[in-house]
Amino acid sequence: MTDETKHAAQARALLDSEEGFRLLIESVREYAIFMLDSGGYVASWNAGAERIKGYRAHEIIGRHFSTFYAAEDLAAAKPARHLEIAREQGRVEDEGWRLRKDGGRFWANVVITALRDAQGNIRGFAKLTRDLTDQRAREEAEGRAALASEASRLKDDFLAIVSHELRTPLNVIQGQATRLRAGNLSHEDQERAWASLHRNLQLQTRIIEDLLDVSRIVSGKLALRRERVDVLSLVKEAVDEVQTAAAAKDVTVTKEYEPTDARVMGDPLRLRQIVANLLSNAVKFTPSGGRVAVACRRVNDEILLQVSDTGVGIASELLGTLFERFTQGDSSVRRESGGLGLGLAIARELTTRHGGSIEAISGGKGQGATFAMRLPIAAES
């Protein structure tokens, strides 16, 4: 075979291979595969593009590929940005809504690849589009099913927690009432029984009030009074009230107050509720012999309240969800500490509605915790 014959055979083989590749691309129906010129105008079209997008070749070749983009993407200059990224980085991949010929939308995975000649000049772009509408619908359906399952689990957990938490004080109240009714208790035993009744009635009331507060928050019916409030005085009163519970557990409460005439604008009852919740939580989660430190001072244009304890601490993975409803460090039904896990969620909601913020800091389990509440100081009247 002469050199001329050899080169001619290679040329025919190349033409045959190029023609075969073209026919292969044009016959693919699963994917839209087509070419854009350097300006983004459609230069070729395959069977998959016709099936997915609805255009015949003579209807779309010569039109700009932005035809396939929704109005919001056109307003954001998405087509031009995609070509620019492909020019700079060689390719770009995107998922989003695209338009068919009939105006219907489909969820597409799109890859645009820049095509360069031997000198590195852009000759055009290859564009591959996959229709993922059905896949996305299946994933969304699975997601909804998972959410429904999780919601059902949370409902069951909630009912179990509420049942347990309501039944516990009720059992005590029933037991003490039975003992008192029998009439054979000594004076000291009667006093203890009445004190137990009082404590458990308060616990029952708190649980019910927490549930009602959450209901008001969710329904948007939580109303706040607005007046100038001396937060420091409110904190002092709340600390005095928690001293009895702290002493009963042999927990020391220390105080550090910085005198200030600053006031905040808010609802005094709700602000007191926040402070009381932080203090009672600190005492509740601090073991015997531990310490709770309360500090209140002005920092720039805010009142800062910090409640620190040497208690059980908070695992790092729980810090992000601590202020969500029905959350505590231990999520089992029979938590030693008791409670519905609503107090901190309510405290955050109330603090936010007062224009403030609240955060929790802890080094981990066994490292204690600090809760910091910041409230904006009201302008002088």
Characterization of the model:
It contains 10 helices and 11 strands. It has 381 residues and is an alpha+beta fold. The chain folds into 3 domains: 101 residues, PAS domain (Beta-Lactamase); 81 residues, Orthogonal Bundle (Helix Hairpins); 150 residues, Histidine kinase-like ATPase, C-terminal domain (Heat Shock Protein 90, 2-Layer Sandwich), CATH 3.30.565.
The helix/strand series, from N terminus to C terminus, equals HEHHHHEEEHHEHEEHEEHEE
Tell me the fraction of residues in β-strands, as a range.
15-25%
Question: What ranges have pLDDT less than 50 throughout 5 or more consecutive residues?
Answer: 330-336
CATH class of the largest domain: Alpha Beta
CATH topology name of the largest domain: Heat Shock Protein 90
Whole-number total of structural domains: 3
Instruction: Kindly name the structural category.
Output: alpha+beta
Strand order, main sheet: write it out: 6-8-9-11-10
How would the global form be characterised?
A: elongated
> What integer is the average pLDDT?
84
Query: What characterizes the major β-sheet?
Result: 5 strands, mixed
Distance between the termini: 105 Å
Number of helices, counting only DSSP H or I runs of 4 residues or more: 10
The total count of strands amounts to 11
Q: Kindly report the name of the CATH homologous superfamily of the largest domain.
A: Histidine kinase-like ATPase, C-terminal domain
